[in-house]
Amino acid sequence: MSMPLQKLVLFGSVVAGGSCTLIYYLIQTFSRASYYQSALEQLHSRPEALEALGPPLSVHYLHLTDRYNFVDIADAQLKIPVSGSKSEGHLYVSSSRDAPFKRWHLQEVFLQLKDGQQIPVFKRSAENGDEGKED
Fold first, then answer.
1. What is the CA radius of gyration of the chain?
2. According to the 3-state scheme, what is the secondary structure of 9-72?
3. How many domains does the chain divide into?
4. Are 67 and 41 part of one and the same domain?
5. What is the pLDDT of residues 76-131, one digit of tens each?
6. Of 11, 33, 101, 123, which has the fewest beta carbons less than 10 angstroms from its beta carbon?
7. Is 77 helix (H, G, I), strand (E, B) or coil?
8. Distance, CA of 95 to chain centre
9. CA–CA separation, 50 vs 119, rounded Å?
């Protein structure tokens, strides 16, 4: 009876190790994506958001089990945990692209602090669709 249990423990260890590898891979994939990097660049360009968080700014791992985090072939939305010396919250990111393998375009980025305060960081202009338009 101990033999099957040992096999089960070994199998569980292999599966758990594979799960950790998959989770690490997914986190690395998100953090290198242009929509993730662009959102952080926008956050760093907004003094009022940085002031509300307080220096130094820390960006934490995404919670892959959070249903808000979603990426498919045309749309991406992320909820990036961030913190500073004064407060913490989440950077909400919405991005899209016209077709597979095309460039991602930020649609909206805002910071929501734990006290409920929302700070607009980026909103894509409806008139011309240019990146970089701020509220």
1. 19
2. HHHHHHHHHHHHHHHHHHHHHHHHCHHHHHHHHHHHCCHHHHHHHCCCCEECCCCCCCCCCEEC
3. 2
4. yes
5. 999 999 999 999 999 999 999 999 889 999 999 999 999 999 999 999 986 545 54
6. 101
7. strand
8. 11
9. 10
